[in-house]
Design goal:
The chain is of the alpha/beta class. The protein is about 30% helix and about 20% strand. The chain is globular and about 55 Å long.
Length: about 450
């Protein structure tokens, strides 16, 4: 599934929610059909993306304008970069130059190249050295702007491309599209596996971003086991080739669904975020100033309407050595010998959104506010591209070094998130704690320090 709330409608993307379709500038009246909470924040329909046209044109609203109209921020790339320590890296010239980020999605977006140019112009970003779109499994069906599934994947694609580029403006991007929609269970997963194998075989890039996944329990059939084993073999091959693989942890808290859309009555996690060979990215609610000054973060959990970060304990995978060696006895008791996730975190709350530029819906081109853990995987991919340039070689499989660094001195490399939980739908989830936890991992990045420590850890 693309990260939708509970995946109850399989036409939504994992980790992706539209808060409002377009943000009106001050003085622009909201449509009378807008669903608005008492706080003034737009509420997303948990069954589908909400899209409400408000302003055409290439210029995004400022964060200050969003706060004045909606009482919530709409963080720019510059603000996110400042909050997470990416700005000093970029200012030093480490912009992902010479690196390639591989993004895998169903269908893609028919307007992604033009939309990226508009997004870049709106935020003062350079165009990437290249954005290459490949469809080695065959062309996707003709885009239908009335088809919710295609719209959802086009939004996901736009988020992945625009914000991976925002964090690594000097990196090349290769977008691999599947003609089959990945929904829940095995559906669409063999095609994604084939695309990633294609990327590895052709050495397309040293970072792979995955903003999708399926509930572990839906992948226990013979076909599910076979596709998981195929991914595990691929991820281990990626590690041997120093390719970093990232995955979003999901947007349903611990309340994930079966192939019929029914919530499992016990805590669950999603795959591939649960793979021990993947760096899993959970979600937070970020508070920062309009200059991007970091103020605080909590676990993203907006209740049943607007979702919560995924995270928890895998039912399928044993605890990897990097967790056994670096997590305390309290965490060992929680994990019970199984893989815990996520490993790290990033802003994801639809109430603390970022903006994307979309133009694939006729008459509704503009900037859209968006949230979900789909934000985290491509932005971490961008940060790692910057780090690869800084290191003069690919950082590769991150988790062993991440855990060693955080275990020694987490506070210099991560913002530790210690407040909140990811309970959903009456299913008790996991609490944030000091240090690693099963909601936000080690926390969000202090990228300028973290990248240098990752490079030093290799020595």
């Amino acid at each position: 599934m693309r990260f939708s709330l509970h995946g109850r409608v399989t036409s939504l993307v994992v980790g992706l929610f539209l808060l409002a379709t377009l943000l009106p500038m001050p003085g622009t009246a909201l449509p009378t059909t807008t669903n608005q909470s008492q706080s003034g924040a737009l509420v997303s329909d948990r069954r589908r993306p909400t899209r409400r046209f408000a302003k055409s044109g290439p210029k995004p609203p400022t964060d200050a304008e969003c706060r004045a109209v909606f009482n919530f921020p709409c963080y720019s790339p510059q603000e996110i970069g400042a909050a997470y320590g990416v700005t000093p890296v970029l200012d030093a010239g480490y912009v992902g130059r010479g690196q390639t980020i591989v993004i895998v999605d169903s269908f893609g977006s028919p307007t992604i190249k033009a939309d990226l140019r508009t997004f870049d112009a709106g935020y003062g970003l350079p165009d990437p050295p290249s954005l290459e779109i490949r469809a080695p499994l065959g062309p996707s069906p003709t885009f239908d702007p009335t088809n919710r599934d295609m719209i959802g994947w086009a939004v996901e694609t736009t988020l992945d491309v625009e914000w991976a580029h925002a964090m690594a403006p000097g990196a090349r991007i290769v977008l691999l599209t599947s003609p089959v929609s990945e929904t829940e269970g095995v559906q669409g997963m063999p095609q994604f596996l084939a695309l990633e194998q294609y990327a590895l075989d052709r050495h397309l890039g040293k970072i792979i971003s995955q903003s999708w996944g399926a509930t572990e329990e839906t992948l226990q059939s013979p076909d599910g086991q076979a596709v998981r084993q195929g991914f595990e073999n691929l991820y281990q091959e990626a590690a041997r080739e120093n390719v970093t693989v990232l995955a979003s942890a999901g947007d349903s808290g611990v309340a994930n669904v079966d192939v019929n859309g029914n919530v499992y009555p016990f805590p669950t996690v999603i795959y591939p975020a649960s793979s021990p060979w993947v760096t899993s990215v959970g979600g937070t609610s970020l508070t920062a100033s309009t200059q991007g000054q970091y103020q605080s973060e909590v676990v993203w959990n907006d209740g049943p309407t607007n979702g919560a970060t995924g995270g928890g304990v895998s039912a399928l995978y044993d605890e990897p050595g990097y967790q056994k060696s670096n997590l305390p006895s309290s965490d060992q008791s929680l994990l019970g010998g199984h893989r815990g996730l996520p490993d790290v975190a990033y802003n994801a709350d639809p109430a603390t959104p970022i903006l994307v530029f979309l133009s694939f819906i006729p008459g509704q081109a503009g900037y859209y506010a968006i949230g979900g853990t789909s934000e985290g995987s491509p932005q971490w991919a961008g940060i790692i591209a910057d780090g690869n340039q800084l290191a003069h070689h690919p950082l590769g499989f991150l988790n062993p070094a991440l855990y060693r660094i955080a275990n020694r001195d987490e506070s210099t490399s991560f913002h530790d998130v210690t407040t909140g939980n990811n309970s959903q739908d009456g299913i008790t989830g996991y609490n944030a704690t000091t240090g690693w936890d099963a909601t936000t991992g080690w926390g969000s990045p202090r990228a300028d320090d973290l990248l240098r420590r990752l490079i030093a850890a290799e020595g």
